[in-house]
Amino acid sequence: MGKPTERSYFYRQSENPLSSLNITIDTSLTLPHHNIDHGVILGEGDGTVNLLSAGYMCNKGWKMHRYNPAGVKVKVYEMLHEPERFSPRGGPNTGDHVDILGRQSLNDLILRVAAGKGDAIGENVESEIREYAERVKITEEPDYLRVQQ
Q1: Are 22 and 43 in contact (CB under 8 A)?
Q2: Of 2, 39, 102, 109, which residue is the least packed, with the fewest Cβ within 10 Å?
């Protein structure tokens, strides 16, 4: 978490007479204080997937019977993007989408799960994803709620 990531776009009508597209990204729009770079609105994420897409299901969705009817336990463990300045792949504390697979602390967690010690891992939430997830209005299935009462 903590790496600028594409979240949405500003569009304009295409002026290219050779294009069959009727809209295009408005690359003339740049407002650094609003996290807008060449028509792209940047938000928090891992450089590829924005925070809401990456974190909603783990923080809220999978805890609902609707999406996790077997009740499989889900833990959230976010890692901040803390790249080394002179490392082209980010170094041992990267949070970049693909390069995180080389992060030692992530591999330590994977080995704990593989060794059957996953229950000893706590949750670690660095972002505001829980607050964001609460704003998403998705509820349980009415049939499930009636069965539980």
Answers
A1: no
A2: 102
Please, where are the H alpha helices in the chain? 51-59, 104-114, 129-134, 142-148
At 56, phi and psi to the nearest 5?
Answer: -60, -55
Q: How far apart are CA 127 and CA 12, in angstroms?
A: 32
* Per-residue model confidence as pLDDT tens digits over 4-56: 888 899 999 888 888 888 888 999 999 999 999 999 999 888 888 888 888 99
Cβ-contact 14, 28 below 8 angstroms: no
Question: Which residues is 46 bridged to in the sheet?
Answer: 3
- The string of pLDDT tens digits covering residues 80-89 is 888 888 877 7
Q: Which of 120, 110, 113, 124 is nearest to 55 (CA)?
A: 124
Q: Rounded to 10 degrees, what is the CA torsion of 76, 55, 6, 8?
A: -160
pTM of the model: 0.73
- CA 72, chain centre distance (Å): 20
Q: How far is CA 61 from the centre of its chain?
A: 13
Cβ atoms within 10 Å, residue 3: 20
